[in-house]
Amino acid sequence: MGTLFAIREINEAGGIDGRELQAIHHDPQCVPHHYRSLAARLVQQDKVNVIFGCYMSSTRKAVIPVVEKWQRLLMYPTLYEGFEFSRNVIYTGAAPNQNSAPLAAYMTRHFGPRVYMVGSDYIYPYESNRIMSDFVLERPGGVKLGERYVKLDASEADFAPIVRDIKAKQPDFVFSTVVGTGTRLLYEAYANAGLDSSRMPIASLTTCEAEVSEMGAAVAAGHFTSATYFQTIDREGNADVLTRFRAQFGTEDEPNMCWEAAYFQVHLFARAMLQSGSDEIDRLLPYLLGIEFEAPQGRVRIDASNHHTRLYPRIGRVDGQGRFVVCAESRCGVDPDPYLVNHASDDWSAPGVMLGEASG
Ligand code: ACM
């Protein structure tokens, strides 16, 4: 939806040098190998040069060989596990130094270093847990009390033994990398078991406005998410963008961090193409690398060396109305470090590094 919204805005403003953007969409139904075959169809039959999309990392990994083989570009708007580079991909979602590291610092500081991990059974949760383990285990007293995975189409029954185990082990917080419909089931099972989010919250990188709306405020309240965008961020321009989006697309879709990245990456592309005059990768990339845009989250910038994006880490906690209250946020844009080369998790733990964190 963020993609279509940006396309509409660009076309209403006259297109790219008078040329209208046309979206061609196929539905891969969340199946990675469909992503690969449909990406090939976009390239070979539809003659598409730039593909916008993919959510799960398994689907991005399915598309990369296609864009590399045919020298096309994928613009990927989802937070992911990092440790990847392709010349044929621009990554506009958060890398681990922009979401996992601040979340680890925040949760260990406010709740403690004893973590229990639960995730969906695919690459992003495995890798994300590996990274989170490093961040937590290096803290004094840091310990991992459990690491459990559920199928992508997990049912209520899959969560019952996990929640029982969490209740028995009493971690300081739970790190969830469950995605999709399982998210609601996990949080519901947690609430039904009487686990208290004010004392032992779930912390996530993927539970956002859409999932909270699905599970309801009573179930979601008190839990945390680390993201670079929330609907509630108090920033000039954000309220206007949301109002324009809802006027055009209604209120059914809940804008979240992927929506925002999907939105701003089309604008980045349009600006680069206006300058290059072409959407072919060799002509486009020199203009895309280093480009900046005033996005709803803040001024973003594509890093020329690693193709990821300068973003604004935030920690949100769900309130009683089901809204994310931003309880900490970076003072400035944070450059991506997808291989965690320059980053130390300690960067985030000093009081005052994140706004809202000074009082501890
Ligand atoms: C994800 O799979 N990158 C959320």
Tell me roughly what share of residues is in helical segments.
25-40%
CATH topology of the largest domain: Rossmann fold
Uncertain segments: none
CATH class of the largest domain reads: Alpha Beta
- Please report the total strand number as a whole number: 14
Provide the spatial order of strands within the biggest beta sheet.
5-4-6-7-8-12-13-14
Note the gap between the termini: 37 Å
Estimate nothing, just give the exact number of structural domains: 2
What's the architecture of the largest domain, going by CATH? Answer: 3-Layer(aba) Sandwich
CATH homology superfamily name of the largest domain: Response regulator
The portion of residues forming beta strands comes to 15-25%
How would the global form be characterised?
globular
Sketch the topology as an H/E string, one letter per element.
HHEHEEHEHEHEHEHHEHHHEEEEEE
* Count of DSSP H/I helices: 12
Derived structural class: alpha/beta
Mean pLDDT equals: 95
Rg measurement, Å = 20 Å
Largest sheet: 8 strands, mixed
Q: What small-molecule ligands were found?
A: acetamide
What's this, in brief?
The protein is of the alpha/beta class and 360 residues long.
